[in-house]
Amino acid sequence: MSTRLACVVFDAVEPRAAARFWAELLGWEVTVDRPGEVDVAAPDPDAPDVALTFLPSRRPKTAKNRIHLDLCSRSLDHQRLQVDRALALGARRLDIGQGAVPWTVLADPEGNEFCVLEPREQYVDTGAVAAIVMDTRDPSRLAEFWSAACGWPLTHRTAGYAGIRAATGQGPWLEFLLEPAAPGERSRLHLDLVAFPSDDPVVEAARLRAAGAVPVGPDAPPSGGESPAVEPVLVLADPETNEFCLLRATID
Predict the structure, then answer these.
(1) 111-132 pLDDT per residue, tens
(2) What is the pLDDT of residue 87?
(3) Pair 198, 219: CB distance under 8 Å
(4) Beta-carbon neighbour count of residue 231 at 10 Å?
(5) What is the rounded distance in angstroms from the CA atom of residue 207 to the CA atom of residue 3?
(6) Torsion of CA 196, 168, 190, 110, to 10 degrees
(7) What does the angle CA 19 – CA 20 – CA 22 come to, to the nearest 5 degrees?
(8) Chain segment 214-228, per-residue pLDDT in tens
(9) Alpha carbons 70 and 114: distance in angstroms, whole number
């Protein structure tokens, strides 16, 4: 068995405000709201979307994140509506050297980059989040690692891009874009994995290490987050030093 991708985690100076922004923009709901953690998820509990978690951090954002979200749109009018809605909620336009492109680059109220994409066929069934995108020096190598970590097949691979997605063909893509300057400064976003209830998390941690992960530390969340509500089994880093947590599965 493999671990599964549970959520994208944001370090935030104001977690509640950041969570409200993303919940309203995506049409999702705040599902957990406590001092150490705020969670946002799609209103349908069976939806294939990956949840968002916001953890408190006193560390301000100082550089471009290695990870960002791409949001889908159904039409050019819908794209414009999404951009206008984001700006009304507190986002701002951002120039990261993208030039004349059909998508719009924005920053959320905490400065985290994200894109509102023009309509694309490959994202018609993803839900609100089209893709979780990671900058990398080696898209193919990093995609292979995360394919092993998530259990998602690698379906697209070129010199500058690789993509994986759940075998069900539902939910967002996890994409890897060539960025020669990566990895750079530690990102304020990271991914959390969770072991399936039937699997031994210690065995899963060993499997991830065999795939190329490196232990970082057993007791501290990555990227400056503080006091996570769910204690990770282990904090690891992928082959390009992107930190992530392996969480214990919870049984309701």
Answers:
(1) 999 999 999 999 998 999 999 9
(2) 98
(3) no
(4) 12
(5) 10
(6) -130
(7) 65
(8) 998 654 455 455 444
(9) 6
Largest CA distance in the chain: 49
Among 242, 4, 246, which residue's Cα sits nearest to residue 137?
242
| Residue keyed to tokens 């939910």 | 171
pLDDT tens digits for 21-67? 999 999 999 999 998 999 999 988 767 778 999 999 988 788 899 99
Q: Residue 205 corresponds to which tokens in the numbers above?
A: 């941690």
Per residue, what are the HEC states of the chain?
Answer: CCCEEEEEEEEECCHHHHHHHHHHHHCCEEEEEECCEEEEECCCCCCCCCEEEEEECCCCCCCCCCEEEEECCCCHHHHHHHHHHHHHHCCEECCCCCCCCCCEEEECCCCCEEEECCCCHHHCCCCCEEEEEEEECCHHHHHHHHHHHHCCCEEEECCCEEEECCCCCCCCEEEEEECCCCCCCCCCEEEEEECCCCCCHHHHHHHHHHHCCEEEECCCCHHHCCCCCCCEEEEEECCCCCEEEEECCCCC
The letter for the amino acid at 197 is P
**Token pair belonging to 207:** 């499997």
d(CA 85, CA 189): 23
**Are 134 and 177 a contacting pair, CB within 8 Å?**
yes
